[in-house]
Protein backbone atom coordinates (compact mmCIF):
# COMPACT_ATOMS: atom_id res chain seq x y z
CA UNK A 1 0.00 0.00 0.00
CA UNK A 2 1.19 3.49 -0.52
CA UNK A 3 0.88 3.83 3.20
CA UNK A 4 2.51 0.47 3.45
CA UNK A 5 5.14 0.24 6.16
CA UNK A 6 8.20 0.76 3.99
CA UNK A 7 11.94 0.17 5.02
CA UNK A 8 16.21 1.82 5.24
CA UNK A 9 19.40 3.43 6.88
CA UNK A 10 20.51 2.72 10.41
CA UNK A 11 20.72 5.03 13.38
CA UNK A 12 22.04 3.32 16.50
CA UNK A 13 19.92 3.71 19.60
CA UNK A 14 21.59 1.56 22.24
CA UNK A 15 20.13 0.62 25.54
CA UNK A 16 23.00 2.45 27.19
CA UNK A 17 21.45 5.69 26.00
CA UNK A 18 17.85 4.60 26.33
CA UNK A 19 18.08 3.25 29.84
CA UNK A 20 20.71 5.66 31.05
CA UNK A 21 23.05 2.79 31.82
CA UNK A 22 26.80 3.41 31.84
CA UNK A 23 27.85 -0.21 32.29
CA UNK A 24 30.01 -2.10 29.87
CA UNK A 25 28.76 -5.57 29.00
CA UNK A 26 30.03 -8.27 31.31
CA UNK A 27 31.41 -11.61 30.25
CA UNK A 28 28.07 -13.33 30.83
CA UNK A 29 25.93 -10.57 29.33
CA UNK A 30 24.12 -11.20 26.05
CA UNK A 31 23.79 -8.22 23.73
CA UNK A 32 20.65 -8.63 21.64
CA UNK A 33 20.66 -6.46 18.54
CA UNK A 34 17.24 -5.42 17.28
CA UNK A 35 16.51 -3.75 13.96
CA UNK A 36 13.36 -1.64 14.11
CA UNK A 37 11.98 0.49 11.31
CA UNK A 38 11.98 4.27 11.38
CA UNK A 39 8.88 5.76 13.04
CA UNK A 40 7.46 2.35 13.95
CA UNK A 41 7.68 3.16 17.65
CA UNK A 42 8.31 6.24 19.73
CA UNK A 43 11.45 6.88 21.75
CA UNK A 44 9.32 6.85 24.89
CA UNK A 45 8.05 3.34 24.13
CA UNK A 46 11.59 2.11 23.47
CA UNK A 47 12.80 3.61 26.72
CA UNK A 48 10.03 1.93 28.72
CA UNK A 49 10.48 -1.45 27.08
CA UNK A 50 14.28 -1.44 27.23
CA UNK A 51 14.47 -0.38 30.86
CA UNK A 52 11.81 -2.87 31.97
CA UNK A 53 13.22 -5.79 29.98
CA UNK A 54 16.80 -5.27 31.12
CA UNK A 55 15.68 -4.93 34.73
CA UNK A 56 13.75 -8.22 34.50
CA UNK A 57 16.59 -9.89 32.56
CA UNK A 58 19.87 -8.56 33.99
CA UNK A 59 22.00 -10.83 31.79
CA UNK A 60 20.57 -9.23 28.62
CA UNK A 61 21.36 -5.86 27.08
CA UNK A 62 19.24 -4.60 24.20
CA UNK A 63 20.80 -2.66 21.39
CA UNK A 64 18.25 -1.15 18.99
CA UNK A 65 19.21 0.07 15.53
CA UNK A 66 16.66 2.15 13.62
CA UNK A 67 16.45 1.33 9.92
CA UNK A 68 15.09 3.27 6.95
CA UNK A 69 12.47 1.50 4.83
CA UNK A 70 14.17 2.49 1.56
CA UNK A 71 16.50 -0.30 0.51
CA UNK A 72 15.80 -2.50 3.52
CA UNK A 73 14.99 -5.58 1.42
CA UNK A 74 18.52 -5.93 0.07
CA UNK A 75 19.99 -5.18 3.48
CA UNK A 76 17.94 -7.87 5.21
CA UNK A 77 18.68 -10.45 2.49
CA UNK A 78 22.40 -9.71 2.83
CA UNK A 79 22.46 -10.49 6.55
CA UNK A 80 20.25 -13.57 6.14
CA UNK A 81 22.46 -15.03 3.43
CA UNK A 82 25.83 -13.83 4.74
CA UNK A 83 28.26 -15.22 7.32
CA UNK A 84 28.72 -11.97 9.23
CA UNK A 85 26.97 -11.50 12.56
CA UNK A 86 23.37 -10.51 11.78
CA UNK A 87 20.97 -8.69 14.09
CA UNK A 88 19.14 -11.03 16.43
CA UNK A 89 15.66 -9.65 15.72
CA UNK A 90 14.40 -7.78 12.65
CA UNK A 91 11.12 -5.92 12.17
CA UNK A 92 9.83 -6.53 8.65
CA UNK A 93 6.71 -5.61 6.72
CA UNK A 94 4.15 -8.38 7.10
CA UNK A 95 4.07 -9.09 3.35
CA UNK A 96 7.87 -9.39 3.16
CA UNK A 97 8.20 -12.54 5.24
CA UNK A 98 7.74 -14.94 2.33
CA UNK A 99 10.60 -13.32 0.44
CA UNK A 100 12.93 -13.64 3.42
CA UNK A 101 11.83 -17.18 4.25
CA UNK A 102 12.78 -18.26 0.73
CA UNK A 103 16.41 -17.53 1.65
CA UNK A 104 16.25 -20.34 4.25
CA UNK A 105 17.75 -17.84 6.68
CA UNK A 106 14.93 -17.56 9.22
CA UNK A 107 14.37 -19.44 12.45
CA UNK A 108 11.18 -21.49 12.53
CA UNK A 109 9.09 -20.11 15.39
CA UNK A 110 6.09 -22.43 15.05
CA UNK A 111 6.54 -24.07 18.45
CA UNK A 112 6.80 -20.75 20.29
CA UNK A 113 3.81 -19.41 18.36
CA UNK A 114 1.55 -22.22 19.51
CA UNK A 115 2.99 -22.88 22.96
CA UNK A 116 3.73 -19.36 24.22
CA UNK A 117 2.15 -16.72 22.02
CA UNK A 118 -1.46 -17.79 21.47
CA UNK A 119 -1.19 -17.84 17.69
CA UNK A 120 -4.82 -18.91 17.30
CA UNK A 121 -5.85 -15.38 18.34
CA UNK A 122 -3.56 -13.47 15.96
CA UNK A 123 -4.92 -11.13 13.33
CA UNK A 124 -5.06 -13.12 10.09
CA UNK A 125 -3.58 -10.27 8.06
CA UNK A 126 -0.40 -10.46 10.15
CA UNK A 127 -0.28 -14.17 10.93
CA UNK A 128 -0.93 -15.59 7.45
CA UNK A 129 1.92 -13.77 5.67
CA UNK A 130 4.30 -14.95 8.40
CA UNK A 131 3.35 -18.60 7.83
CA UNK A 132 5.14 -20.37 4.99
CA UNK A 133 4.29 -23.98 4.13
CA UNK A 134 2.86 -24.53 7.60
CA UNK A 135 5.79 -23.03 9.50
CA UNK A 136 5.56 -19.71 11.34
CA UNK A 137 8.57 -17.50 10.59
CA UNK A 138 7.05 -14.07 11.25
CA UNK A 139 5.59 -13.16 14.64
CA UNK A 140 2.81 -10.54 14.33
CA UNK A 141 3.73 -7.27 16.02
CA UNK A 142 1.26 -4.51 15.06
CA UNK A 143 -1.27 -3.71 12.37
CA UNK A 144 -2.89 -0.77 10.62
CA UNK A 145 -5.51 -0.80 7.91
CA UNK A 146 -7.88 1.39 5.96
CA UNK A 147 -11.14 2.72 7.37
CA UNK A 148 -13.71 5.20 6.10
CA UNK A 149 -12.92 8.75 7.19
CA UNK A 150 -16.03 10.92 7.02
CA UNK A 151 -17.09 14.53 7.47
CA UNK A 152 -19.55 14.46 10.37
CA UNK A 153 -20.90 17.89 9.47
CA UNK A 154 -21.87 16.82 5.95
CA UNK A 155 -23.48 13.64 7.31
CA UNK A 156 -25.52 15.68 9.80
CA UNK A 157 -26.63 18.16 7.14
CA UNK A 158 -27.92 15.23 5.07
CA UNK A 159 -29.83 13.87 8.07
CA UNK A 160 -27.56 10.84 8.41
CA UNK A 161 -27.08 10.15 12.10
CA UNK A 162 -25.17 6.86 11.98
CA UNK A 163 -22.52 5.27 9.75
CA UNK A 164 -23.68 2.51 7.39
CA UNK A 165 -23.44 -1.11 8.49
CA UNK A 166 -23.68 -2.87 5.11
CA UNK A 167 -22.46 -2.29 1.59
CA UNK A 168 -25.99 -1.71 0.34
CA UNK A 169 -26.64 0.90 3.01
CA UNK A 170 -23.25 2.46 2.26
CA UNK A 171 -24.15 2.91 -1.40
CA UNK A 172 -27.52 4.45 -0.48
CA UNK A 173 -26.00 6.90 2.00
CA UNK A 174 -23.18 7.82 -0.35
CA UNK A 175 -25.70 8.52 -3.13
CA UNK A 176 -27.60 10.86 -0.77
CA UNK A 177 -24.37 12.71 -0.03
CA UNK A 178 -23.34 12.96 -3.68
CA UNK A 179 -25.34 16.05 -4.65
CA UNK A 180 -24.50 19.28 -6.40
CA UNK A 181 -20.91 20.30 -5.92
CA UNK A 182 -20.56 17.90 -2.99
CA UNK A 183 -19.01 14.47 -3.50
CA UNK A 184 -20.41 11.44 -1.70
CA UNK A 185 -16.96 9.85 -1.59
CA UNK A 186 -13.52 10.45 -3.00
CA UNK A 187 -12.23 7.17 -4.42
CA UNK A 188 -9.38 7.19 -6.90
CA UNK A 189 -9.72 4.77 -9.79
CA UNK A 190 -6.57 2.79 -9.01
CA UNK A 191 -6.87 2.27 -5.25
CA UNK A 192 -6.17 -1.43 -5.62
CA UNK A 193 -5.80 -2.19 -1.91
CA UNK A 194 -9.39 -1.10 -1.38
CA UNK A 195 -10.45 -3.16 -4.40
CA UNK A 196 -8.71 -6.20 -2.90
CA UNK A 197 -11.03 -6.02 0.13
CA UNK A 198 -14.12 -5.99 -2.08
CA UNK A 199 -12.78 -8.97 -4.05
CA UNK A 200 -12.11 -10.93 -0.85
CA UNK A 201 -15.62 -10.15 0.39
CA UNK A 202 -17.00 -11.78 -2.74
CA UNK A 203 -14.89 -14.89 -2.19
CA UNK A 204 -12.36 -13.99 -4.87
CA UNK A 205 -8.56 -13.75 -4.83
CA UNK A 206 -5.88 -11.64 -6.51
CA UNK A 207 -3.79 -14.75 -7.17
CA UNK A 208 -3.64 -18.36 -6.00
CA UNK A 209 -1.07 -21.13 -5.81
CA UNK A 210 -1.84 -24.27 -7.77
CA UNK A 211 0.54 -27.19 -8.15
CA UNK A 212 3.42 -25.15 -6.79
CA UNK A 213 2.84 -22.32 -9.28
CA UNK A 214 1.17 -18.96 -8.67
CA UNK A 215 -1.32 -17.48 -11.12
CA UNK A 216 -3.56 -14.44 -11.26
CA UNK A 217 -7.28 -14.74 -10.49
CA UNK A 218 -8.84 -11.37 -11.34
CA UNK A 219 -10.95 -12.99 -14.05
CA UNK A 220 -13.13 -15.15 -11.76
CA UNK A 221 -16.81 -14.21 -11.29
CA UNK A 222 -16.12 -13.41 -7.63
CA UNK A 223 -13.25 -11.03 -8.41
CA UNK A 224 -15.27 -9.35 -11.16
CA UNK A 225 -18.14 -8.84 -8.70
CA UNK A 226 -15.72 -7.08 -6.38
CA UNK A 227 -14.70 -4.77 -9.21
CA UNK A 228 -18.36 -4.16 -10.03
CA UNK A 229 -19.01 -2.91 -6.51
CA UNK A 230 -15.89 -0.73 -6.68
CA UNK A 231 -17.19 0.86 -9.88
CA UNK A 232 -20.59 1.61 -8.29
CA UNK A 233 -18.99 3.25 -5.28
CA UNK A 234 -16.37 5.16 -7.26
CA UNK A 235 -19.08 6.72 -9.44
CA UNK A 236 -20.53 8.52 -6.37
CA UNK A 237 -17.74 11.06 -6.41
CA UNK A 238 -15.29 12.75 -8.74
CA UNK A 239 -12.16 10.74 -8.06
CA UNK A 240 -9.97 10.28 -11.15
CA UNK A 241 -10.42 6.99 -12.99
CA UNK A 242 -6.86 6.83 -14.29
CA UNK A 243 -4.70 7.43 -11.20
CA UNK A 244 -4.26 6.27 -7.64
CA UNK A 245 -4.88 7.89 -4.26
CA UNK A 246 -1.67 9.93 -4.28
CA UNK A 247 -2.21 11.51 -7.71
CA UNK A 248 -3.53 13.90 -6.61
CA UNK A 249 -3.00 13.38 -2.90
CA UNK A 250 -6.45 12.50 -1.62
CA UNK A 251 -5.94 14.16 1.78
CA UNK A 252 -5.60 17.47 -0.03
CA UNK A 253 -8.79 16.84 -1.98
CA UNK A 254 -10.73 15.93 1.15
CA UNK A 255 -9.41 18.97 3.01
CA UNK A 256 -11.43 21.27 0.75
CA UNK A 257 -14.46 20.34 2.86
CA UNK A 258 -16.85 19.31 0.07
CA UNK A 259 -16.19 15.57 0.18
CA UNK A 260 -18.21 13.42 2.59
CA UNK A 261 -15.98 10.32 2.75
CA UNK A 262 -12.65 8.84 1.77
CA UNK A 263 -10.92 5.51 2.43
CA UNK A 264 -7.53 5.60 4.11
CA UNK A 265 -5.64 4.84 7.30
CA UNK A 266 -6.74 7.06 10.22
CA UNK A 267 -3.45 8.96 10.39
CA UNK A 268 -4.55 10.72 7.19
CA UNK A 269 -6.93 12.72 9.36
CA UNK A 270 -3.95 14.55 10.85
CA UNK A 271 -2.82 15.64 7.40
CA UNK A 272 -6.35 16.72 6.49
CA UNK A 273 -6.67 18.86 9.61
CA UNK A 274 -3.25 20.41 9.00
CA UNK A 275 -4.38 21.45 5.53
CA UNK A 276 -7.76 22.70 6.77
CA UNK A 277 -7.90 23.49 10.52
CA UNK A 278 -11.65 24.19 10.17
CA UNK A 279 -12.17 20.41 9.92
CA UNK A 280 -10.74 19.72 13.38
CA UNK A 281 -13.31 17.90 15.45
CA UNK A 282 -15.48 17.22 12.40
CA UNK A 283 -13.89 13.98 11.20
CA UNK A 284 -15.23 10.56 12.12
CA UNK A 285 -14.20 6.98 11.37
CA UNK A 286 -16.00 3.72 10.71
CA UNK A 287 -14.93 0.30 9.40
CA UNK A 288 -15.40 -0.36 5.71
CA UNK A 289 -18.86 -1.98 5.63
CA UNK A 290 -19.25 -5.61 4.66
CA UNK A 291 -22.00 -7.41 2.79
CA UNK A 292 -23.84 -8.30 6.01
CA UNK A 293 -24.64 -6.17 9.05
CA UNK A 294 -22.37 -6.85 12.00
CA UNK A 295 -19.45 -8.02 9.88
CA UNK A 296 -17.10 -5.32 8.56
CA UNK A 297 -15.70 -5.66 5.07
CA UNK A 298 -12.38 -7.34 4.35
CA UNK A 299 -9.38 -5.02 4.31
CA UNK A 300 -5.75 -5.20 3.41
CA UNK A 301 -3.82 -5.31 6.68
CA UNK A 302 -0.49 -3.55 6.69
CA UNK A 303 1.89 -3.73 9.59
CA UNK A 304 4.95 -5.52 10.86
CA UNK A 305 6.12 -8.95 11.91
CA UNK A 306 9.24 -9.82 13.90
CA UNK A 307 11.70 -12.38 12.53
CA UNK A 308 14.78 -14.07 14.03
CA UNK A 309 17.66 -14.88 11.66
CA UNK A 310 18.76 -18.50 11.79
CA UNK A 311 22.40 -17.45 12.10
CA UNK A 312 21.79 -15.20 15.13
CA UNK A 313 24.35 -15.76 17.87
CA UNK A 314 21.67 -15.57 20.57
CA UNK A 315 18.62 -17.23 19.05
CA UNK A 316 17.03 -18.38 22.29
CA UNK A 317 17.51 -15.02 24.00
CA UNK A 318 16.20 -13.26 20.88
CA UNK A 319 13.04 -15.36 20.92
CA UNK A 320 12.43 -14.33 24.54
CA UNK A 321 12.60 -10.65 23.52
CA UNK A 322 10.17 -11.33 20.67
CA UNK A 323 7.80 -13.02 23.12
CA UNK A 324 7.84 -9.92 25.30
CA UNK A 325 7.25 -7.52 22.40
CA UNK A 326 4.40 -9.68 21.08
CA UNK A 327 2.89 -10.37 24.50
CA UNK A 328 -0.15 -8.72 26.06
CA UNK A 329 1.68 -6.22 28.30
CA UNK A 330 3.74 -4.58 25.59
CA UNK A 331 1.11 -5.00 22.90
CA UNK A 332 -1.22 -2.96 25.08
CA UNK A 333 1.42 -0.29 25.63
CA UNK A 334 2.30 -0.16 21.92
CA UNK A 335 -1.32 0.06 20.78
CA UNK A 336 -2.13 2.89 23.17
CA UNK A 337 1.12 4.76 22.51
CA UNK A 338 1.15 4.50 18.70
CA UNK A 339 -2.60 4.05 17.95
CA UNK A 340 -1.87 0.71 16.32
CA UNK A 341 -4.10 -2.33 16.21
CA UNK A 342 -2.63 -4.97 18.57
CA UNK A 343 -1.67 -8.34 17.15
CA UNK A 344 -4.60 -10.29 18.63
CA UNK A 345 -8.33 -9.93 18.10
CA UNK A 346 -8.75 -10.55 21.84
CA UNK A 347 -6.81 -7.36 22.62
CA UNK A 348 -9.13 -5.04 20.69
CA UNK A 349 -10.59 -3.81 23.98
CA UNK A 350 -7.33 -2.12 25.01
CA UNK A 351 -8.00 0.69 22.53
CA UNK A 352 -11.61 1.20 23.55
CA UNK A 353 -12.56 4.86 23.41
CA UNK A 354 -10.13 5.64 20.56
CA UNK A 355 -12.60 6.02 17.68
CA UNK A 356 -10.12 5.80 14.83
CA UNK A 357 -8.10 2.90 16.20
CA UNK A 358 -11.26 1.03 17.23
CA UNK A 359 -12.55 1.34 13.66
CA UNK A 360 -9.26 -0.10 12.41
CA UNK A 361 -9.41 -2.95 14.90
CA UNK A 362 -12.94 -3.89 13.82
CA UNK A 363 -11.79 -4.05 10.21
CA UNK A 364 -8.54 -5.84 11.06
CA UNK A 365 -10.54 -8.79 12.36
CA UNK A 366 -11.48 -9.33 8.69
CA UNK A 367 -8.00 -8.40 7.48
CA UNK A 368 -6.04 -10.11 4.75
CA UNK A 369 -2.67 -9.63 3.12
CA UNK A 370 -1.47 -9.80 -0.45
CA UNK A 371 -0.82 -13.27 -1.93
CA UNK A 372 1.88 -15.03 0.07
CA UNK A 373 4.26 -15.50 -2.84
CA UNK A 374 7.93 -14.55 -2.43
CA UNK A 375 7.62 -12.90 -5.84
CA UNK A 376 4.57 -10.75 -5.15
CA UNK A 377 6.81 -7.67 -5.07
CA UNK A 378 7.36 -8.28 -8.81
CA UNK A 379 3.64 -7.70 -9.38
CA UNK A 380 3.68 -4.38 -7.57
CA UNK A 381 6.69 -3.07 -9.50
CA UNK A 382 4.57 -2.38 -12.60
CA UNK A 383 1.22 -3.21 -11.10
CA UNK A 384 -1.19 -4.54 -13.79
CA UNK A 385 -4.13 -4.29 -11.38
CA UNK A 386 -4.12 -0.50 -11.72
CA UNK A 387 -4.62 -0.25 -15.51
CA UNK A 388 -7.18 -3.07 -15.24
CA UNK A 389 -9.23 -0.97 -12.84
CA UNK A 390 -9.01 2.10 -15.07
CA UNK A 391 -10.07 0.07 -18.11
CA UNK A 392 -13.20 -1.18 -16.33
CA UNK A 393 -14.07 2.24 -14.95
CA UNK A 394 -13.78 3.68 -18.43
CA UNK A 395 -16.18 1.11 -19.89
CA UNK A 396 -14.09 -1.84 -21.04
CA UNK A 397 -15.55 -5.31 -20.60
CA UNK A 398 -14.44 -6.50 -17.11
CA UNK A 399 -13.74 -10.08 -18.18
CA UNK A 400 -11.55 -9.02 -21.10
CA UNK A 401 -9.66 -6.47 -19.04
CA UNK A 402 -9.20 -8.96 -16.20
CA UNK A 403 -7.78 -11.64 -18.47
CA UNK A 404 -5.08 -9.28 -19.69
CA UNK A 405 -4.16 -8.41 -16.10
CA UNK A 406 -4.14 -12.09 -15.10
CA UNK A 407 -1.56 -12.89 -17.76
CA UNK A 408 0.75 -10.17 -16.45
CA UNK A 409 0.29 -11.15 -12.80
CA UNK A 410 0.99 -14.80 -13.60
CA UNK A 411 4.13 -13.93 -15.55
CA UNK A 412 5.41 -11.78 -12.67
CA UNK A 413 4.91 -14.63 -10.18
CA UNK A 414 6.70 -17.32 -12.21
What labels describe this entry?
414 residues, single chain, alpha+beta, disordered N terminus
Mean pLDDT: 92
Oligomer: single chain
- Sheet having the most strands: 7 strands, mixed
C-alpha Rg (nearest Å): 22 Å
How far apart, in Å, are the first and last alpha carbons? 22 Å
Please indicate the percent range of residues in DSSP E strands (runs of 2 or more): 15-25%
Unreliable stretches, pLDDT < 50, 5 or more residues? 1-25
Record field, number of beta strands:
14
Structural class: alpha+beta
Q: How many H/I helices?
A: 18
Shape assignment: globular
Work out the helicity level: 25-40%
Overall description:
- The protein has 414 residues and is an alpha+beta fold.
- Strands 1, 2, 3, 4, 7, 13 and 14 form a seven-stranded mixed β-sheet that branches.
- It is built from 18 helices and 14 strands.
Structure in a nutshell:
This protein is 39% helix and 16% strand. By secondary structure, it is an alpha+beta fold.
